[in-house]
Amino acid sequence: MNVLIAFVVSTKVTRNAVLRIIWALSFLLPSICGAAPPPASFNPFPAGSARQYHFDLARNFFSSPDVEASERRLLITRLERFQQRYGRAPQNADSLLSALRTQDSLDLQVSRHDSYLDLLYNSDTRNTDAQTAVAELRSVSDKSFAAFDSVIASLPETLFTRMADAQPALQRYRFAFETARRRAAHPGAASWSQISGAQRFWATMNGTDFGFVETPAGSLSVGREYTAIASNPDRRVRREGYLRNEAGLARNQDVYADILVSTAKSLNAAARLRGYPDYSAETYDDRFLDRTKVRAMLDSLAARAEINKRIERALIDHYRRSHKLDTVHRWDLTLPEPGMSIPRFTIKEATQAVVEATRPLGESYTRELTALLDPANGRLDIAPGPNRANRQGFSNGLVGFPSMFYQGEFQGYVDDVVTLVHESGHAVQNMLMTANGVLPRYAWGPAYFTESFAGFCELLVLEHLYETAPDRAHKIFYLQQLINQGAWMFRAGWESLMEQQLFDRVGTGSTLTADDIEAMTQSTGSRFSVWLGPGSEWRLAWLQPTTYFVRPLYRVNYMYSKLLALRYLDLLHRDPAQFKKNYLALLSNGYDAPPDTLLQRFVGTRIDDPALIDGAVGVLDSWLKELETLYKS
Description:
mainly alpha; Butyryl-CoA Dehydrogenase, subunit A, domain 3; 3 domains; 3-stranded mixed beta sheet; two-stranded antiparallel sheet; globular; disordered N terminus
């Protein structure tokens, strides 16, 4: 994981894959290096179907690695010629249009090679040549495109306007021109990719021995088999696993605290060199956000957190009654309903659930989704095999070529189904943008925007599983999953607020210890959750958001994405036909304008609209009432 992140931070398509991995890891305890092996009695790939669920890269990309390598050498030559030819200002409107279109073509080809090589490596990690090849290609393309972008940014706005009047096709590139000018105001590479504690974090985490828990079925590794420990019916096993995990983290808490503080200091210093007051201002500006508005949104979310506390209390009371527990601890919250086994899905069952859940989004969405999930098309690689990268799951692609989905091993748990629908959402959006002719430069948007689409898919599939559940126990299980998925915006909220406070205090010269960060976490988290505050048994919660270490100040994306996803779901429930029309138009549009412009046009909201919180709370409240009715039935 740490090697992959260090390698791809400067790339385009593979960077997208890493952010998907970060999303997946954000839901896990940090000591989890892999899920527990599935019981022999369940096979998610029955009747020998596993062999069908591997990539057919020859069909979707290049006929062979040799062919790809040959075409890549030609592409590098074209990139070098592009830099030579367009390293100075175009003479007229037609020349500018030709240069922009050439850059689009080259960008698409670079992304295609990038995706192919990334998938080669993940499906066989012995292929380190693929990593080297991507690094070389991206180095050349970044240098070539940066030179041209600098030329574009230097054009006076009045000159671009005159050129666009003379050549109307240039109007399509106005947002790209404005973006280039914004970035030129703060020259230099993005700070976080240069200065990050990610490698030190992963080296410390991976070097920690979290120990084993003895069970009647044998020893289970806390570091590798936490899923099996957390869902074990024996309370002693769950408690011991939880506490061993906590003890392992505590052994190096001073190291982790030093990583956070030193990273914040370095990022703030680098941001000032780029003309920003600090790193918070830099990273928020890059996402069309404003520090003051972000802080106001987080405080507003804290003010409405009573719904989250009601949900937590309802779950605690239910676990106490249904499992006859005197006190409900955090290690008890992974139990299923009494007498119920944890649900498992074959890949065909999971595929059917994902397709049916998203069918309200329309025929074009279903068509693209079905094509992705059909193993005959060779766009899935999710079955076990030797030398595979152990990744929770990520989609890979852009526009102009097929998007793909990779997972280290699909095991059929509900989390696997959620990962499948989440990443499928990204892949389908890429294909809808391709069908709409979106330029590669407009296929990327702020993470909270893109993740809101995938998060919406998560809600759809969990709602579908709840509505089609065969009995009361399963209905309770799936509705709890659905509510937890929606209410996760509150956890993302306090984690974001805590991280922002850490950066603010470091910015004033404070040197924070592990105890200081723990106290800050408990104080901030108590505004959002009953599980945090004085005397809490949930310690070291600040070590569970891996993004603190691998993508500083990224966490707020999850808060915004959950708010938007709940907004989409509410609109779908209110007016399915109108929402489907607007939502598909939004997915297909690409990112050719600031997020608020697109949200106002297609969804009727903006990113800092207080009504987003009101609407989300309303959805959660309705679900909680349904859950409380089920509890009493």
